Amino acid sequence: MILSLIVGIGKNREIGKGNDLLWHISEDLKNFKKITSGKPIIMGRKTYDSIGRPLPKRRNIVISRDPSLKIEGCDVFTDPEVVLKDLKESGVKEAVVIGGSFIYEYYLPKVDRIYLSEVEYEGEADVFFPKFDRSEFRVSDEAFFEETENSPAWKFSVLNRL
């Protein structure tokens, strides 16, 4: 199984504020949907709360410390290792970690691939992506997007662990 992670970060690794995204880039959201559709997605409870509903055409996995938490349309786990075991046993080809910061921090050392959107944003945030060693990855795909009236400039890269 390939364990992937998808994230959009600002210049200082900013990823959110007030349990919300820092920018709205239509093309990046479409890319997120394309990459994650048909695959299990792994998220923390706060990320689920910010989305507000299970995302369609994906197995929604929520990790929470609350063993009594039930969310309709989602599989809730308390142990992130049990999530991996469950996915491997079910024969999944690729699962995608979608946040938030604690979930990213836990799975980052274990991921095989990172789908990374780097946004020309430098500003207020209360959630950050953990530091990681880019030398452990190689870029297999990259695309650049100019600033528009509706979005800042950004770069999308696929990083595969060496």
Describe the structure.
The chain is of the alpha/beta class and 162 residues long. The protein has one domain: Dihydrofolate Reductase, subunit A (3-Layer(aba) Sandwich). The protein has helices at 26-36, 45-51, 80-89, 101-107; strands at residues 2-9, 14-16, 41-44, 60-63, 74-77, 94-99, 113-119, 127-128, 137-145, 154-161. It has an eight-stranded mixed β-sheet, sandwiched between helices. β3, α2 (45-51) and β4 (60-63) form a beta-alpha-beta unit. The radius of gyration is 15 Å and the shape is globular. The chain starts with a strand and ends with a strand.
Uncertain spans, ≥5 residues at pLDDT below 50?
A: none
Class inferred from helices and paired strands = alpha/beta
Query: In the CATH scheme, what's the topology name?
Result: Dihydrofolate Reductase, subunit A
Instruction: Round the Cα radius of gyration to an integer and report it.
Output: 15 Å
How many helical stretches?
Answer: 4
Helix content: 10-25%
Second rung of CATH, namely the architecture: 3-Layer(aba) Sandwich
The fourth-level CATH homologous superfamily is Dihydrofolate Reductase, subunit A
CATH class category name: Alpha Beta
Q: What's the count of strands?
A: 10
Q: Tell me the count of domains.
A: 1
The biggest beta sheet reads: 8 strands, mixed
Query: What overall geometry do the principal axes of the alpha carbons give?
Result: globular
Give the termini separation: 16 Å
Placed side by side, the strands forming the largest sheet appear as: 5-4-3-6-1-7-10-9
